[in-house]
Design goal:
This protein is an all-alpha fold. The chain has one domain. It is built from four helices and no strands. α1 packs antiparallel against α2, α1 packs across α4 and α2 runs antiparallel to α3. It is globular. The relative contact order is 0.21.
């Protein structure tokens, strides 16, 4: 099990890395609130992925273009780098 500090550090480091290399990182308030819920241990990273996929589908249906592949990769990277993070809850 990881701590909220470890999850926040992992998220920030991953996001900073993507930004430093010119990639888009999702700024939608709903998405960021899900990240905060994950950091707090209230939901799993898998739940963040599920919610984010639904958000992307709603955008696609509305014809709103996004650069979601980078965020999806970022979430998957966190899942790989923090063993057990997909099931982590406090």
């Amino acid at each position: 099990m990881t701590t909220p500090d470890a999850r926040r550090e992992r998220w920030q480091r991953s996001a900073d890395h993507k930004i430093a290399h010119g990639f888009h990182v999702e700024t939608d308030p709903a998405f960021l609130s899900w990240i905060e819920e994950w950091i707090a241990g209230n939901i799993t990273i898998k739940e963040v992925q599920t919610r984010y996929a639904a958000l992307l589908m709603s955008r696609d249906k509305a014809g709103i273009s996004t650069k979601h592949q980078v965020v999806t990769a970022l979430i998957e990277q966190i899942g790989r780098e923090l063993p057990g993070a997909a099931d982590d809850r406090i």
